[in-house]
Amino acid sequence: MTTGQKITIEFNDRIVRQFMLAAIIWGAVGMLVGVLIATQLNFWQANFGQAWLSFGRLRPLHTNAVIFAFVGNMMFAGVYYSTQRLVKARLASDFLSNLHFWGWQLVIVAAAITLPLGLTRGKEYAELIWPLNIAVAVIWVVFGVNFFWTLARRHEKSLYVAVWFYIATIITVAMLYIVNHLSLPTSLLHSYPVFGGVQDGLVQWWYGHNAVAFFLTTPILGIMYYFLPKAAGRPVYSYRLSVIHFWSLVFLYIWAGPHHLLNTALPNWLQLLGMTFSLMLWAPSWGGMLNGLLTLRGAWDKLRTDPVIKFFAAGVTFYGMATFEGPLLAIKSVNALAHYTDWIIAHVHAGALGWNGFMAAGMFYWLVPRLWNKPLHSTALANLHFWIGLTGILLYVSAMWASGITQGLMLNATAEGGTILKYPNFLETLNAIRPLMLLRVVGGTLYLAGFVLMGWNVWRSIRGAQAVNGTMEVYVEAPVAGENLGVRGTFLNAPVAYTTLALVGSFVWMFTSGWLNILGLVATMFCVLLAIGHFQTRGTAWGEWYDRLLVNALPFTVLTFLAVAVGGMIQIIPLLTIDRRLQTEDRVARVYTPLELAGRDLYVHEGCYNCHSQMIRTLVPDVMRYGEYSRLGESIWDHPYQWGSKRTGPDLARVGLKYNHAWHYDHLENPRNISTGSNMPAYPWLKGNPTDYASLPARIRVQKMLGVPFPSWSPAMIDTLAKEQARDITKDLRAQGRYVDPDREIVALIAYLQCLGKTWEPTSAAAAKP
Amino acid sequence: MSVIPLTVFFSLLLAGLFMVLFAHEQRRRRFASTERDSLLPLADERPRLADQPGKVERDLRARSEPVQGPGSALSPPVADDEHCC
Q1: I need a surface site. Which of A39, A118, A429, A514 has the fewest CB within 10 A?
Q2: A626 and A520, same structural domain?
Q3: How many CA atoms lie within 13 A of A658 on its CB side?
């Protein structure tokens, strides 16, 4: 019953139009860069000899552009459009909306300039340099303030499920982004992450995995819960299922990060947690997918004619497929085959192209007629986009599946009763997947062509049209007595109490041994049974409390934050607070020489980590191919860690002194000089560019502040040491018939590559070994 | 037994039951319900020309030419507005 004063509100749809058009433009740019670097993997010459077009520098541009520029802008458009309507309020501040839009575009432009220049932090999806990190955080806060301020001014008291997902997105991305981007600057354009080695790896994938979860998934789920019912003309299939979907998803997702580091030197308890929680994610993910697809019940006939429904139905299906595949890949034995291969590339592109890309397309086609009050220019073109895009994804994904499984099997294959590798030459495995890598280019190009068609269709639709803003009549109602939950109402209630007790019990079960372990298991089971019994008898009270929670935005946000933060606290804090010298196993690395550090920074600068790992897993084929498994202590001083996530080329953890200096010189000049058929780019500019000796004192000073035990070198000593080592290397090179000035970058990079896996000392744990 | 008093009795019983349950439902402090919330995305709205606050939806309605008839996802929302108000 509505009794308040009736008012008409006009939504701020201008900002939605701006974000939508930006998403289309940046999406095309990001995908174009993707096609270019996929081409470079087939034709190494496709960087045209330009440093700024080389694979290692453009791959971060591709991932950042697609994630933050394309999906980011699309997400902001969807969030702003739907939130205004769901809470029946215009965005709180036009100024903040505009600041959000222009600030975000400025960050994207800055990223598009700095990444090809090789200005990077060297962590995947977290490459942007520190001033841009601060800019992103500030703009995100602007987004958050604008969003929550709008919620505070809402005329619809109850928060719809889409808004829950937006809340989770905003608070979790803020938490993840800030923690993973903590850095100490060495200059205006360079910094070192505050975490090193395994700590950096764990924080990186806590962030990296949840960038997928809370940037590419939860906001798009919110968009699904709003736009799919709109397009289908019927409410969501089960609102109650969406309650379970939301809370279980946000709680479980945050734990899954360590599945990116399976079979590595990461402590086993973290690997097991990552795998277990990844498997548990199957349930909520499929609950959400089914909820989306079943919303189309009775509207399936629209699939034949309506491209919006086509895109949404396919997008949600891809969500289901990708979230089935993710937990599968998180099983340690499957991961042993798939990790570092193209199978992972297939997985992420099923998500990015199928889920994000198709949901974006469906949303854009739905929005254009409503934001410009004009029918879409061509439904036939939109249908064509769908079929071209779908064909592109299927070609891409199936090619990468076949490629990943083929190369994984070849790399792990042994002969002679398991005593030798069947394919000892890495290039053999690369040549086996070449046709599949080419097929990926075809698939990606088709997808891009479909996307460009959409851009043209949208352009023709809005050309000459006058933009319109939505208006809605709402009733201003006075607050209802007893509406506010307060602190007591938020925490002292059956659902929260049972959840907390069951979690405490399960943590005791997970992290203890002996009788405490059994006690934890019994306590968990007891709590769950008690909760079920209580819900059966007092379910109405549970429902009433939740209904009340939904009109209390702040308590809802606090509980969401606790649900996502608990996983991070339990996984991250123990490893960060323990003295890292205790996490070395039987080896501890010595610190780098000044020249090696300069070479390492060049390795990061050129993006070598995009194709080369530095982590020999505790797997027999890895050890047979690359040498002894990597110990925690060997990367203890690495800021940033460089374990990598993909082996387009071989692992480099123990490449030091495997070849002589001349080999590396020739290989960097043109890899084909040494390895016939290699697809690695040539790095001729390394012979021409001078090494930046001047910045070394500042870099070493910052590393010392971060706890790396560098000796107390003066700047002059640092300079002398670096130049002496460079002279020694060039002397060797001269003896081997290669002539280069000692102060060139290639010398520093050779110094770094030659120390990999060779500069460690045994710890007391090694002495205790039999 | 006469059918009329029986009918009246049961009718009054049902009406009384309805009133008691209705009063009970009204007394319960409900802040939301899943059924109501799930309909939130389907709320109606009207377009208004951007940057021209006085230009209301009536004009837009005259200009619109939906391509797929009422309710199509690819047509402007004016067709939906026929249902409202």
Answers
A1: A514
A2: no
A3: 14
Q: Which of A245, A370, A386 to mutate to test the interface with B (most CBs of B within 10 A)?
A: A370
Q: Are strands B46-49 and A183-185 parallel, antiparallel or unpaired?
A: unpaired
Residue A464 CB-density burial (10 A; 0-12 exposed, 13-18 middle, 19+ buried): exposed
A505-538: pLDDT as tens digits: 999 998 888 899 999 999 999 999 999 999 989 9
Give the ranges where A358-378 is alpha helix by DSSP (H). Answer: 358-372
By CA distance, what is A370's nearest residue in B? Answer: B76
| A491 shares its domain with A435 | no
Residue of chain B with shortest Cα separation from A374: B76
- Predicted local confidence at residue B75, as pLDDT: 64
Dig out the tokens for A342 from the structure: 């193209």
Question: A269 is written with which tokens?
Answer: 């308890």
In chain B, the largest separation of any two C-alpha atoms, in whole Å, equals 74
Q: Is residue A571 part of a domain?
A: no
| A584, A586, A590, A634 from A761: Cα distances, Å | 11, 9, 7, 9
Question: Inter-chain contact A82–B41, Cβ cutoff 8 Å?
Answer: yes
- Reading phi first (left if > 0) and then psi (alpha if -120 to 50, else beta), residue B23 is in alpha
At residue B67, the pLDDT reads 39
CB contact under 8 A, A157 and B32: yes
- Separation CA A137–CA A139 (nearest Å): 6
Report yes or no on A282 lying in a domain: yes
Is B53 in the A-facing interface, judged by CB distances under 8 Å?
yes
Judge whether A690 lies within some domain: yes
Number of domains in chain A: 3
Task: Convert the pLDDT of each residue in A395-410 to its tens digit.
Answer: 999 999 999 999 999 9
Q: Angle CA(A527)–CA(A528)–CA(A531) in degrees, nearest 5?
A: 85
Give the pairing of strands A468-476 and A587-589: unpaired
Residues A640 and A695 in one domain: yes
Q: Are residues A142 and A276 in the same domain?
A: yes
Specify the higher pLDDT residue, A357 or B72: A357
| Domain interval for residue A680 | 592-768
Q: Which of residues 4-23 of B touch A (CB under 8 A)?
A: none
Residues 6+ apart with CB under 8 A from A532: none
Q: Is the pLDDT of residue A646 over 60?
A: yes
Choose the closest CB to A308 out of B39, B47, B74: B74
Shortest Cα distance, chain A CAs vs residue B59, angstroms: 11
Q: Give SS3 for A287.
A: helix
Partners of A466 on chain B (C-beta within 8 Å) are: 49-50
Does residue B44 sit at the A interface (CB-CB below 8 Å)? yes
B71/A233 CB distance under 8 A: yes
Q: What is the 3-state secondary structure (H, E, C) of A255-282?
A: HHHHHHHCCCCCCHHHHHHHHHHHHHCH
Residue A231 lies in a domain: yes
Predicted TM-score (pTM) of the model is: 0.91
